[in-house]
């Protein structure tokens, strides 16, 4: 569906009530308008992304000299603004000739608004119409059709060119209203195109707000937990999906972000969830999962994997292989000649604070067997596993070994690492 045009915006009731008169840019009335802003900042137009209609009361133009006024119009045109609408008769008695002349020269639509209408009424009506019509003028072909929620989630996950008022308006159109202090968490599910799993988890969380939609490869959701909720929000969401998700599903939870932190933070948690899901599907787990249930993980559980694959496995394969060989070479040589599980034992042990009880339980072996493995590891490496100076290097190398081993070049080439 084509985006809303400037000509159509001029037909909206609040705009017509302002009695607009077109002074320049007659040939550009059918260009799409991506968003409508109001601003009284005249020292440049760097806040514009292109395609916006800008509203101003003209106060900053009253005492400006001719060159400043012309430069202001040139900067708007250079930023590919859809048009400039200036309120005249109050702060600005009439449209300055040089503003009209420069707009005509550049083909920038210039409107004189002759009646005072609160800009908030104009922007609200126009932006709601933009969202309802064409989702901010973007003409990307999406397999999910006219689903506004899916389009918003896709734009956030892809970090498309957005702005906070646009995101809030589109979220509100989808019924998503994070309250003050709310924490947002991105969630990505694989193995289903049914959003009911998300809905069940939301009910278990007490009816938190949610944006969710099915995509060709997964289900993507953005959950809102109230700021008054006690406890770890990531754990709470993971626990809810462990109960709500069917066996065989893979669920990845992003990190918690403040709803009031801006749309880039919303994007961050969705991107983290998607990247984590891709890793969970392509890299062997560090430790055994729960048999017969869904695999539910989080971006922080796979933080090392995400860092090691930033930019793609293929781009890092040689570096990771060198890291593994340097730190774990003797263990790899032993495993090549003897059936054993020393590297995995080492990683599980390090991930759980070198606790023999926890490590043995996770590996389903007795403590005596674990002690024998640990002694073998220390003997082969010629070091003490508990040395604090070695923990980071050994854990990173063990994780890198699992990443490289689990992602063949064919698979790794499709691994997108965006977060």
Would you kindly provide a brief summary of this structure?
By secondary structure, the protein is of the alpha/beta class. Helices cover 48% and strands 13% of the residues. The protein is elongated, with a radius of gyration of 28 Å.
What can you see in these coordinates?
Strand 4, helix 5 (97-106) and strand 5 form a beta-alpha-beta unit. Strands 6, 7, 8, 9, 10 and 11 form a six-stranded mixed sheet that branches. A five-stranded mixed sheet has the order 1-5-4-3-2. The protein has helices spanning 6-9, 13-17, 59-62, 66-78, 97-106, 119-134, 148-157, 164-173, 196-204, 233-244, 263-282, 303-308, 313-337, 342-351, 356-363, 367-381, 388-406, 409-412, and strands at 20-24, 35-38, 52-56, 83-87, 110-113, 183-190, 209-214, 219-225, 250-253, 257-258, 295-298. The model is unreliable at 134-146 and 408-419 (pLDDT under 50). It is elongated and about 90 Å long. It has three domains: 6-134, Udp-n-acetylmuramoylalanyl-d-glutamate--2,6- Diaminopimelate Ligase, Chain: A, domain 1, CATH 3.40.1390; 148-165 and 174-300; 306-412, Orthogonal Bundle (Arc Repressor Mutant, subunit A), CATH 1.10.10. The two termini are 31 Å apart. It has 419 residues and is α/β, with parallel strands linked by helices.
Layout: helices, strands, pairs:
Blueprint: H1 6-9, H2 13-17, E1 20-24, E2 35-38, E3 52-56, H3 59-62, H4 66-78, E4 83-87, H5 97-106, E5 110-113, H6 119-134, H7 148-157, H8 164-173, E6 183-190, H9 196-204, E7 209-214, E8 219-225, H10 233-244, E9 250-253, E10 257-258, H11 263-282, E11 295-298, H12 303-308, H13 313-337, H14 342-351, H15 356-363, H16 367-381, H17 388-406, H18 409-412
Parallel strand pairs: 2-3, 3-4, 4-5, 9-11
Antiparallel strand pairs: 1-5, 6-8, 6-9, 6-10, 7-8
Helix pairs in contact: 4-5, 6-8, 7-11, 9-10, 13-17, 14-16, 14-17, 15-16
């Amino acid at each position: 569906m084509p985006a809303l045009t400037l000509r159509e915006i001029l037909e909206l009731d609040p705009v017509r009530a302002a009695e607009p008169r077109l002074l320049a840019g007659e040939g550009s009335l059918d260009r799409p308008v991506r968003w409508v802003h109001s601003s009284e900042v005249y020292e440049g137009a760097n806040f514009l992304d292109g395609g916006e209609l800008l509203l101003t009361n003209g106060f900053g133009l009253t005492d400006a000299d001719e060159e400043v006024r012309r430069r202001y119009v040139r900067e708007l045109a250079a930023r590919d603004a859809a048009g400039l609408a200036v309120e005249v008769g109050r702060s600005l008695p009439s449209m300055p000739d040089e503003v009209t002349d420069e707009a005509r020269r550049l083909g920038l639509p210039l409107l004189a608004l002759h009646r005072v209408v609160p800009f908030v009424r104009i922007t609200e009506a126009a932006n709601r119409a933009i969202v309802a019509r064409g989702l901010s003028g973007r003409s990307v072909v999406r397999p999910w059709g006219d689903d506004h929620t899916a389009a918003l989630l896709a734009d956030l996950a892809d970090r498309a060119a957005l702005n906070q008022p646009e995101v809030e308006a589109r979220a509100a159109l989808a019924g998503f209203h994070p309250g003050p202090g709310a924490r947002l968490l991105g969630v990505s599910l694989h193995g289903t195109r049914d959003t009911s799993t998300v809905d069940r988890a939301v009910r278990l969380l007490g009816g938190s707000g949610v944006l969710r939609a099915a995509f060709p490869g997964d289900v993507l959701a953005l959950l809102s937990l109230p700021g008054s909720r006690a406890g770890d929000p990531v754990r709470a969401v993971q626990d809810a999906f462990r109960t709500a998700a069917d066996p065989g599903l893979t669920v990845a939870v992003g990190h918690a972000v403040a709803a009031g932190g801006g749309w880039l933070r919303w994007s961050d948690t969705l991107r983290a969830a998607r990247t984590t899901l891709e890793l969970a599907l392509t890299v062997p787990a560090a430790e055994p999962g729960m048999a017969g249930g869904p695999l539910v993980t989080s971006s922080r559980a796979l933080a090392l994997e995400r860092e090691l694959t930033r930019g793609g496995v293929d781009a890092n394969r040689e570096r990771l292989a060198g890291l593994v060989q340097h730190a774990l070479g003797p263990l790899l040589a032993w495993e090549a000649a003897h059936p054993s599980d020393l590297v995995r034992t080492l990683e599980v042990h390090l991930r759980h604070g070198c606790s023999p009880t926890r490590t043995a339980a996770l590996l389903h072996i007795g403590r005596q067997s674990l002690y024998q493995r640990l002694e073998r590891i220390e003997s082969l490496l010629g070091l003490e596993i508990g040395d604090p100076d070695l923990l980071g290097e050994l854990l990173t190398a063990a994780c890198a070994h699992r990443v490289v081993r689990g992602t063949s070049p064919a698979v790794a080439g499709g691994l997108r690492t965006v977060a």
